[in-house]
Known about the structure:
Elements: H1 3-92, H2 102-122, E1 130-134, E2 139-140, E3 152-157, E4 160-161, E5 168-169, E6 174-184, E7 189-196, E8 199-207, E9 213-223, E10 228-236, E11 241-253
Amino acid sequence: xxxxxxxxxxxxxxxxxxxxxxxxxxxxxxxxxxxxxxxxxxxxxxxxxxxxxxxxxxxxxxxxxxxxxxxxxxxxxxxxxxxxxxxxxxxxxxxxxxxxxxxxxxxxxxxxxxxxxxxxxxxxxxxxxxxxxxxxxxxxxxxxxxxxxxxxxxxxxxxxxxxxxxxxxxxxxxxxxxxxxxxxxxxxxxxxxxxxxxxxxxxxxxxxxxxxxxxxxxxxxxxxxxxxxxxxxxxxxxxxxxxxxxxxxxxxxxx
Length: 255
């Protein structure tokens, strides 16, 4: 063969080898890409299941809190009815007597003592206090110690809760149960706290996951008239934000 034909044959063989190399590389890349797509699909499906479960759990907690408040309200109303029935019975048993007689004074004092005792046991003299509020707008990158303003009031029975400041003001002294829940954006970190007159009485830490996450906490606090209670942000990662609708604050006074 002439040198020219030999040279062309060598070039042709080199070209064939190059084509085979790129074809093998393409097949390998396609297989790796397919495996990666499959992995991403599995991760996405797992994320969707996790988010669905979180939303279901949050709805369950929300419904449970509302049912607790309703049950408490029914119990207080029942105790009030029993109180009124007892007072009616006591009044019916008081015999007619002159206003200034010693017997009349003793009976009146006895009835008043019984009335005060029943009111102390049932809490009916103070009345029912219960509230439930929601956050309806996202709270993005909040400041440290910033109060969460729950702008939608869903339940308010005798409570002084402001949807402008997020602060609950005590107008009836007693022991209160407070519960709050915070829904956080994925891959973020946050600490929220329950504050009484500027002092922390409860806290909650959530975050550091790949998914949207929530956390709830409960505190039992003794309050006097004029005491104020609110939920604030104690710490958070940069750029974190609080999601609305499933972020909530509730409280009620024990009878």
